[in-house]
Amino acid sequence: MNAAARDSAPRPRHLLTLAGIDRDYLAALLDRAAALRVRFATDPRPLDLLDGRTVVNLFFEPSTRTRTSFELATRRLGATAIHFDVANSSTRKGETLEDTLATIEAMGCDAFVVRHAENGTPERLAAHARHASVINAGDGNHAHPTQGLTDLLTLRDRKDRIDGLRVAICGDIRHSRVARSAIHGLQALGAAPVRLCGPATLLPDQAEVPGCELGTDFDAAIEGVDAIMMLRLQKERMTAAMPAGEGDYFKHYGLDAGRLARARRDAVVLHPGPINRGVEIATDVADGPQSAILDQVHNGVFVRMAVLASLLEPAQAA
Ligand code: NCD
């Protein structure tokens, strides 16, 4: 699609998943995030792209990176950021999420950034919203599209491409919305079949991840790869106890310097955070030269700016 055709293509109202996302739209979001990063590298003053707009953070699960970066992204675009205090809200008095959304929407808010433990909550609220946009900031183990975009931008920076890249995602994939969005993004941009590795109980069913290669042997999975994405054990979503203790987990599935040497010499180490040092990743790897973990955090702000701008800015400014 050329630039003119891209500009005239209808823009989506919500961002709920990277599954089935238009490849050109995805690439345009990454390009825009990179351009915003250039602007803010030399000039920290906010833009006025979303002047007068209001973005509400609706987080029903803990968050450090995602919530803060959405708030920063909102302010840097000139919009007003509102943090909805779930713990002290009327959801505690029996109000449904739909009624909460309709109430805040009636005050004139333009977008909701939603994180919830239950798969599909952002979709449900998007279907209910009268005019506002809904952005999924992580639902259950389903999707975390802005994290997926962040991972793609970080990889593209370090490798100059996504096409043909060999990526291994390791750890608790069964409970990971980050892994699912990363897989969809990597597939959309033509990466090699993604290798998924972890203990059998923490792998998804193959039918859930078509086109991916599943395995339980960590050393084999990371052999010769261009990038390794490590994931935390998401105990809050586990229904059964961990099969073995955490010390044992590190022995089999922890990324240390010796293991990292199996990947390409220039392999990038990614982790969406929060990291658990000594559980899934050794400190020297997390803080080492191949680690892009803090680059991911840095890029997350610009990716969220690109997403908010693309969904909310007036059409003629696109
Ligand atoms: C993750 C999440 O909440 O899905 N963190 C993030 O948003 N960067 C991953 C996790 O909790 O392990």
Describe the protein.
The protein is α/β, with parallel strands linked by helices and 318 residues long. Helices cover 39% and strands 13% of the residues. The strands form 2 sheets. Strands 7-6-5-8-9 form a 5-stranded parallel sheet. A 4-stranded parallel sheet has the order 2-1-3-4, with helices on both faces. Strand 1, helix 3 and strand 2 form a beta-alpha-beta unit. Helix 3 crosses helix 12. The longest helix has 20 residues, at 23-42. N-carbamoyl-L-aspartate binds at residues 65-66, 138, 144, 147, 177-178, 232, 234, 272-273. N-carbamoyl-L-aspartate is lined by residues 65-66, 138, 144, 147, 177-178, 232, 234, 272-273.
Strand ordering within the main sheet:
7-6-5-8-9
Q: What would the principal axes of the Cα set say about the shape?
A: globular
Rg over CA atoms, rounded to whole Å, is 19 Å
Which structural category do the helix and sheet elements fall into?
Answer: alpha/beta
Largest sheet: 5 strands, parallel
The secondary-structure element order is HHEHEHEHEHEHEEHEHHEHH
Number of helices, where a helix is a run of at least 4 consecutive DSSP H or I residues:
12
- What's the rounded overall pLDDT mean? 94
The stretches of 5 or more residues where confidence is low (pLDDT under 50) are none
DSSP, total strands: 9
Strand residue percentage = 5-15%
Q: What helical percentage do the residues reach?
A: 25-40%
Please give the alpha-carbon distance between the first and last residues: 16 Å
Bound molecules: N-carbamoyl-L-aspartate
